[in-house]
């Protein structure tokens, strides 16, 4: 009844709302802080630098988002990415070497890799859903198996001889403007030496971004997404409600594998080769991003956008530290602290968890 | 008169253990049958065969006079057999209307070919059915985890009602409820009975069972050891059937 | 096959598998079946055995520890750094080595302690707590060593780390702990070495751990917690304190592994990000019969699990097979382990 009490409640509510969004706030604060300390952070180029490094974490984070929401985990994403980079690079190089047109060899190489890349996910899904192997073990085994196969394909040497076009696409931008002259997409236009070129939106960022938008929509607004959350929330309830849980889980792991494969293909295009350990640096970053973003390892909670924020936090921290002159090692410490902090916040504000999904 | 549900000689084994042994029972429309028995008597297994979670090793099930093979939960749901499990089978992380529509989500088309969840429809319909049951739930958009035991029970029951259950199976509906809420649930059961539903209720609370049931079926160690009309028996007799004293007395 | 012999087979399938593999590799591998090679296998698996032992305790309680690989790196770098500094300050080698080792061991209890507190009092899932802690420890280690191995350590380290108990020059000399003096060149090839120091060291540690797990109240409570936290709490076990001890023990053993790494390699090494030590340790524990759900597991099982992986790697290598096949092999075996574990759920 009294004015003071209602105002206090409103204030409390406001802070609670704020606390829910702690990740975003943290991100903004971090970004602002870094841009103050080192100008150029928020510059056009600065952001592009962050964006260029983001595709792999975004894709692997996307992969883990779906898996973790169902209460599982996928340790194989990093090595499926390496596997995919090796296979796609090898296929493209082989086709090109056999005389196929460069664009065609790239396209066919990518398509075949996409198909092959879903197999590890399929196996993961079968192991988890039908053989009831704990996801940790199943995906860890797949990690080993794909690693072994990747190395066998490479046999110690590098994959070379990809067409130059691959590198151009991989390192190119969506929109390239030679001021006053031409605009071209994906590939740099021919300009005179010393001519000016403005590149906007690296291709390797655009592609994951498109997937992020599509799958954020799918997770939030479709039956598939709803069932994913249901399985994570209460598997029994999902079964009894008539959801085909086993098939759904297989699809989820195949989806994870698909994203990892795309990451591997982008890697191959960007670095014009394939490496078995292409994804090792990002091995656990995907999981970390998902958790920092607010998902629970027990399942049922999380979202694509939350994961994106988690990825951005990692990227901003990394780049910020780098720009401040700290050696890369500090990133591990900082990310580790943020990770634990993220989970602690969820404990101290359990109401956050109960807000509308 | 045609029975709503008739099961004949149902048997279920798990390895060497016979959980349900040659049990037959019937449920009429507009009738409440209490399924009683001690722990391990086979009640849960029996109803899981009717709700499609288990397949009987032997025996037949007849629904509305026709033989049916209920080989999955979806099959049971499709012939309007709804089951309320002891643990309510609700997804903690989803909100009220999502739980009511779990597995049977309503979709709408956007851009002519993309199927998307129709949140408004599901929200509206859920509100309607909860109002019908005179259940108060502050916001249907809240996650289930913030609701009380009675409210959750209400959501679970609403789910069954919404999907036009013809046969409703309830496993321990009043356990873990406060007294006032227990009364509400029992009133609901009577309401549903008057609307023509057949209801099987498993409960350890003999008092509750005696206040709503028309007939009682008692299981012991997987076998049916007794069947009584409510008016022709009393709690003492039922207890002795459950624990087997009667046989000893003989 | 009768039911009981089937379950005996299932329970010890890893052991049988190792024996069969040894048999096969004896034929396909060059010098596989030799004293020198077997001892070599044991020697190389020292680190993994220690890490697996620490994971065994953690996994039995239903938890997991992803920090041990990085704690090992910390220990390696820290002990080496101290040894180097003391040595440069002209301390006697024995003292610098001892102080370096002991300090590192003590320091390595701290990450585990923090893990335990986070997990029990703050309810952070073990996966996250240990992952985060591992990252932090890794960062600290890297800052300490700037990405380079630590050298200029006191002498004699590698002799202790790679030494054997008995040296026999057939027909000529026998000595203990050190090579017989005055041998060179051709005669070195004749030298027979028996019982690596690392084997003795491991044996003692593993024996102690085995004893703790099997015969003490502490071990019993560990299983109890894994079997059901609620039940354990209600029977009066101080589960919070117990778990903190478990995680501290885990990183302590990782610290031990790190110190031993210094003895074996003669340098302090950080743990590369890609080495996945903890995952391999966990694999050893699971192959040995533990369940990630907790409540099951034995030290002997983990030893067999690690041995299986090492035998595969060594055998494939000596048989001239591409070493990368072992990743595939271990992956498959892990799946087999879990499937068997589920088919025979009552085995302990």
Describe this structure in words.
- The complex is a heterotrimer of chains A (357), B (250) and C (348).
- Chain A is mainly alpha-helical and 357 residues long.
- Chain A has helices at residues 3-20, 22-37, 44-69, 77-97, 102-129, 135-154, 164-171, 203-221, 223-233, 235-240, 245-271, 285-292, 304-323, 330-348, 350-354, and strands at residues 173-178, 182-185, 198-202.
- Chain A has a single domain (22-346), classed as ABC transporter involved in vitamin B12 uptake, BtuC, CATH 1.10.3470.
- Helix content of chain A is 71%, strand content 4%.
- In chain A, helix 7 (164-171) packs across helix 11.
- Chain A is globular.
- Chain A starts with a helix and ends with a helix.
- The model of chain A is unreliable at 351-357 (pLDDT under 50).
- Helix content of chain B is 34%, strand content 28%.
- Chain B has a six-stranded mixed β-sheet, sandwiched between helices. In chain B, strands 2-1-4-5 form a four-stranded antiparallel β-sheet, with helices on one face. Chain B has a two-stranded antiparallel sheet with strand order 7-8.
- In chain B, strand 9, helix 6 (179-194) and strand 10 (198-202) form a beta-alpha-beta unit.
- The longest helix of chain B is centred in the last third of the chain and has 16 residues, at 179-194.
- Chain B is globular, with a radius of gyration of 19 Å.
- The two termini of chain B are 35 Å apart.
- The model of chain C has no long low-confidence stretch (mean pLDDT 87).
- Chain C has 17 helices and three strands.
- Chain C has a three-stranded antiparallel β-sheet.
- Chain C starts with a helix and ends in a 5-residue tail after the last helix.
- Chains in contact: A-B, A-C.
């Amino acid at each position: 009844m009294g004015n003071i009490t209602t105002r206090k409640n409103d204030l409390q509510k406001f802070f609670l709302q704020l606390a829910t969004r702690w990740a975003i706030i943290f991100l903004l604060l971090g970004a602002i802080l870094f841009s103050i300390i080192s100008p150029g952070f928020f510059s056009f180029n600065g952001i592009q630098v962050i964006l260029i490094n983001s595709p792999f974490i975004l894709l692997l984070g996307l992969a883990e988002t779906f898996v973790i929401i169902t209460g599982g985990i996928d340790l194989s994403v990093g090595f499926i990415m390496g596997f995919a980079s090796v296979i796609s690079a090898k296929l493209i190089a082989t086709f090109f070497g056999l005389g196929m047109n460069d664009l065609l060899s790239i396209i066919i190489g990518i398509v075949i890799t996409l198909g092959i890349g879903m197999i590890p996910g399929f196996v993961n899904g079968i192991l988890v859903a039908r053989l009831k192997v704990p996801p940790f073990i199943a995906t860890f085994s797949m990690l080993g198996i794909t690693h072994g196969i990747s190395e066998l394909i490479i046999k110690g040497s590098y994959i070379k001889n990809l067409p130059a076009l691959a590198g151009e696409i991989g390192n190119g931008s969506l929109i390239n403007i030679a001021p006053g002259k031409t605009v071209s997409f994906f590939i740099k236009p021919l300009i005179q030496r010393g001519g000016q070129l403005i590149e906007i939106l690296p291709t390797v960022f655009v592609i994951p971004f498109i997937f992020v938008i599509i799958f954020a929509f799918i997770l939030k607004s479709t039956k598939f997404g709803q069932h994913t959350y249901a399985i994570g929330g209460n598997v029994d309830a999902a079964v009894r409600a008539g959801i085909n849980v086993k098939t759904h889980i297989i699809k989820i792991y195949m989806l994870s594998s698909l994203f990892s494969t795309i990451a591997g293909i982008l890697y191959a295009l960007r670095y014009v080769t394939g490496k078995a350990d292409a994804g090792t640096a990002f091995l656990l970053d995907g999981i970390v991003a998902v958790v920092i973003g607010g998902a629970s390892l027990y399942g049922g909670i999380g979202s694509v956008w939350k994961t994106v924020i988690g990825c951005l936090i990692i990227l901003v921290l990394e780049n910020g530290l780098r720009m401040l002159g700290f050696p890369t090692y500090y990133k591990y410490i900082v990310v580790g602290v943020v990770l634990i902090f993220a989970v602690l916040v969820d404990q101290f504000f359990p109401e956050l968890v109960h807000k509308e999904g | 008169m045609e029975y709503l549900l008739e099961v004949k000689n149902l048997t279920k084994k798990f390895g060497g253990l016979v959980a349900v042994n040659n049990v037959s029972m019937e449920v009429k429309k507009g009738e409440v049958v209490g399924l009683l028995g001690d722990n391990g008597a086979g009640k849960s297994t029996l109803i899981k065969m009717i709700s499609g979670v288990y397949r009987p090793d032997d025996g037949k099930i007849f629904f509305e006079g026709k033989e049916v093979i209920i080989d999955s939960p979806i099959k049971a749901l499709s012939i309007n057999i709804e089951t309320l499990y002891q643990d309510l089978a609700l997804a903690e992380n989803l909100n009220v209307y999502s739980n009511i529509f779990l597995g049977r989500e309503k979709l709408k088309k956007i851009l002519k070919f993309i199927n998307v969840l129709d949140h408004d429809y599901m929200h509206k319909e859920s509100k309607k059915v909860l109002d019908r049951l005179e259940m108060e739930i502050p916001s249907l958009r809240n996650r289930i985890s913030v609701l009380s035991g009675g409210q959750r029970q209400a959501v679970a029951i609403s789910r069954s009602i919404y999907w036009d259950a013809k046969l409703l199976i309830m496993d321990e509906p009043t356990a873990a409820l406060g007294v006032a809420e227990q009364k509400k649930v029992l009133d609901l059961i009577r309401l549903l009975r008057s609307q023509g539903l057949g209801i099987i209720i498993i409960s350890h609370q003999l008092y509750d069972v005696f206040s709503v049931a028309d007939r009682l079926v008692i299981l012991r160690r997987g076998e049916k050891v007794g069947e009584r009309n409510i008016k022709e028996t009393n709690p003492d007799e039922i207890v002795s059937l459950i624990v087997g004293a009667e046989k000893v007395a003989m | 096959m009768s039911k009981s012999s089937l379950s005996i087979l299932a329970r010890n399938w890893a052991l049988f598998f190792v024996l069969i593999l040894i048999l096969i590799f004896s034929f396909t591998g060059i010098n596989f079946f030799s004293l020198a090679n077997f001892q070599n296998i044991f020697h190389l698996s020292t680190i993994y055995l220690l890490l697996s032992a620490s994971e065994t305790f953690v996994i039995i309680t239903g938890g997991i520890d992803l920090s041990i690989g990085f704690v090992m790196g910390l220990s390696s770098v820290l002990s080496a750094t101290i040894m180097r500094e003391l040595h440069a300050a002209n301390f006697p080698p024995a003292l610098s080595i001892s102080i370096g080792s002991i300090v590192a061991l003590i320091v390595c209890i701290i990450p585990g302690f923090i893990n335990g507190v986070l997990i029990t009092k703050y309810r952070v899932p073990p996966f996250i707590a240990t992952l985060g802690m591992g990252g932090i420890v890794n960062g600290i280690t890297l800052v300490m060593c700037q990405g380079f191995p630590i050298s200029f350590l006191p002498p004699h380290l590698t002799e202790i780390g790679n030494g054997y108990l008995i040296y026999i020059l057939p027909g000529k000399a026998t000595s203990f702990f050190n090579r017989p003096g005055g041998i060179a060149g051709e005669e070195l090839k004749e030298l027979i070495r028996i019982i690596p120091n690392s084997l003795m060291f491991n044996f003692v540690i593993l024996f102690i751990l085995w004893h703790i797990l099997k015969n003490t109240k502490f071990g019993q409570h560990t299983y109890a917690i894994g079997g059901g936290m609620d039940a354990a709490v209600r029977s009066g076990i101080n589960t919070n304190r117990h778990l903190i001890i478990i995680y501290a023990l885990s990183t302590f053993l990782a610290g031990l592994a790190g110190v031993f790494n210094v003895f074996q390699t003669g340098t302090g090494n950080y743990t590369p990000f890609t080495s996945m030590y903890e995952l391999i340790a966990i694999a050893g524990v699971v192959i040995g019969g533990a369940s990630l759900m907790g409540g099951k597991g034995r030290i002997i099982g983990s030893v067999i699990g690690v041995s299986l992986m090492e035998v595969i790697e060594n055998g494939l290598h000596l048989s001239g097979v591409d070493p990368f096949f072992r990743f595939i092999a271990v992956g498959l075996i892990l799946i087999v382990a879990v499937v068997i574990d589920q088919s025979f759920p009552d085995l302990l």
